[in-house]
Amino acid sequence: MTQTSDASTGKKRLFLRSWGCQMNVYDSHRMADVLAPLGYAPVDAPEGADMVILNTCHIREKATEKLFSELGRLRVMKEARRAEGQEMLLAVAGCVAQAEGAEITARAPYVDLVLGPQSYHKLPELVARVSRAGGHVIETEFPTEDKFDHLPEASAPQGVTAFLSIQEGCDKFCAFCVVPYTRGAEYSRPAASVIAEARRLVGQGAREITLLGQNVNAYHGEGPDGREWSLARLLAALAGIEGLERLRYTTSHPREMGDDLVAAHRDIPALMPFLHLPVQSGSDRVLAAMNRGHRAEDYLRIVDALRAARPDMALSTDIIAGHPGETEADHEATLRLIERVGFAQAFSFKYSPRPGTPAAGAPGHVDEATKDRRLAEVQALLRAQQAAFNASKAGQAVDVLFTGPGRHPGQLSGRTPWLQPVHAEAPAAMIGRLIPLRILAGHPNSLSGELLHPPNPEQHAA
Ligand code: 5AD
Ligand code: SF4
């Protein structure tokens, strides 16, 4: 098999496409890192690429169909390249790869490599196997060894706001969810390696780090002292890193919201007053059918405790409309819970059966029209809450971390502590800095603001 390279750079071109969650985006960066020593450099289109990796997501609808239609398009490019005597290695990674395995190469025999999320550190070896032997390689085992330990250090700087994966997998087995089957058992990365990566990110210019995990608040990694560290303990250690201004973590499960983590929101100023905490439903019947392991009142108690610990705490959530067994009364209970909490932001989905999950085979599936209507009601309420939350910031002084240029010349964009996007006129030198702004207006999806202390033009005259 010929391996060609970009004549101008001597590099092989790698195109990575990522669907789904932040964990997948993070994993895609790491796959690029692990392939860099083999001469692969990322490009932003699949045309003419030497290798294409599709990093898939299986959590909601039609992931498999989307994948095969994308593969169909890539097949044409691969054949065109082959006609020119060149190769395009095609790899499918992520949760669809994990779930479908050999099904993928059976339906799309031109795919060279199928690899699950636990195997990314083996990419160089797998690529070599494909290149040497031809044929497909399918790698969807859950090896006991630690993928994190085998991945190289992140190379490309992520910028002002960076993501850091600290935990993977899930043992919760919510009835609707594929994650426990595709990402495997819960695993926490040792604290020392998390802290080392955080220091490196800050050294490369990160001012905000978001810790990632499917069940991030279930974190229980080995500490440098040999003891098990909770997420609260890890956050306290990370908060000590010079130059790191903001910390966040996502996604959390209500069952893992321990007292120490609630207290961390009181005690660690760098920990932002915004939490994504999926509730899924406001009905105890549905929560039980979902195997969530908590009731509506448990969720409300956590929200109250967080707000007592940090009065400016804002919440985000995930809601599923029309889970099997959901009645009109259950749906009403969800609307009431949303009203009671008042979310700053939220994601809501129509239930879609994931093959192999308990909910897919459960009785009481809700018809599509009812699911659509319930989702629309949930979304109308959540949209109004988000708009009200954004509007409530108008007139306030808020610290904004500027992350890059804004929509218009002379503008920068940034984020509030509550993750709201903000646009304001500001000099480019403020990118990467926390700057106090006065919020002028709250729009449905963003805020506009002005510098509280505009630079003095006289100072610049000289
Ligand atoms: N149907 C609809 N939504 C789902 N989610 C997970 N599985 C399903 C499904 N089968 C949603 C949950 C989860 C979010 C990431 O995706 O709300 O929190
Ligand atoms: Fe899926 Fe539930 Fe695990 Fe979240 S906690 S990843 S919804 S099984």
Percentage of residues assigned to helices:
25-40%
Low-confidence residue ranges: 1-8
Structural class, by secondary structure, is alpha/beta
Main beta sheet strand tally, sense and closure? 6 strands, parallel
Number of domains: 3
Question: Could you give the distance between the termini?
Answer: 63 Å
CATH superfamily of the largest domain: tm_1862 like domain
The number of strands is 21
Cross-sheet strand order for the largest sheet:
2-1-3-4-5-6
CATH class category of the largest domain: Alpha Beta
CATH architecture tag of the largest domain: Alpha-Beta Horseshoe
Instruction: Enumerate how many helices there are, as a single number.
Output: 15
Query: Which range does the strand content fall in?
Result: 15-25%
Query: Which outline best applies?
Result: globular
The bound ligands are: 5'-deoxyadenosine, iron/sulfur cluster
> Any idea what the radius of gyration is?
23 Å
Q: What does the average pLDDT come to?
A: 90
Q: Do you know the CATH topology of the largest domain?
A: pyruvate-formate lyase- activating enzyme
